[in-house]
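Quick start: load a record and inspect it. Here is ADAM metallopeptidase with thrombospondin type 1 motif 6:
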Amino acid sequence: VNIIVTRLIVLTEDQPNLEINHHADKSLDSFCK
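Running the structure step on this input writes:
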């Protein structure tokens, strides 16, 4: 599996619904809401 980063978004404020943990799929799901 090759992963290429095409865009980086820097969050400067706390996001109330953003939940980042060691489960990448759950973190991405939280980020996309």
